[in-house]
């Protein structure tokens, strides 16, 4: 929508991970270095953890895009809560391994034969497990058992685990000592600092074809950091909306006023709730007494919140209508110019 207005050749803040837009902050570069070190070692486990949206999957995609070593056969799993049998079945599927049956013994035998054949070809397997915090402890242990497949004292498969912070207590449990001893490196991703937010935004803007360094006012980056907490995924969502807002308002520069306006519109999306309070409660639910003063006030507050949401939705629809109108005028002008050029020919 806003690409041509600001001189982009593509959307700079799309949510899907794209190695071309990888930004190497200090923490991300360290994590990537650990992954590359692990590749060089060819054994053990590398564990990368971090909060939601800090770029763990992007790092994995960047690593896979840089693999110029044809001796490494890689597969990436994005897991849910898999039991050991389901994990083995998914590994068989992702590596395109043919198994005689679907029993656990059949899957393990097929995986071992596949790994041995890779070794004969001078190759080895790399397994990247994303969202690994969803794996039960017994499934993580199954990964460790797979690392026991060796030939000439060299492991036939290597695993990288990428997960949210909940992965830490799973690995730190007393019964995971053997697994911990196989970890050769680990790193924890953190949100970006204010300076890194500025570098991150400018990097993606330039990568998308816009050469401007003044698209955002100087004080904009600190405010964007405040609203997104430096989380890359939230930055992508927020700045994408900022650019759309700037296009609809015909802004040449995104300033603090625009940021505050969009932040107010996106409060629910950025905080995850209307009032930024926890939604879960350990207290047992109580029946509501409608005629109590306290509950009447609560209902009024809820209705006010609903009214605000509806008003915000209407504003968004109005802006979209303005955008469509502007787009139609632009297309009409282009069509008229083409007709003039054709008539002159």
Automatic annotation (TrEMBL):
It comes from the Bacteria. It holds the Pfam family AAA_22. Residues 42-206 form the AAA+ ATPase domain. Signal peptide: none annotated. CDD domains: AAA. InterPro entries: AAA+_ATPase, AAA_22, ExeA_AAA_ATPase_DNA-bind, P-loop_NTPase, XrtA-assoc_ATPase-like. Gene3D superfamilies: P-loop containing nucleotide triphosphate hydrolases (3.40.50.300). One of its GO terms (molecular function) is ATP hydrolysis activity. NCBIfam families: pepcterm_ATPase. This is ATPase. It comes from Thalassotalea marina.
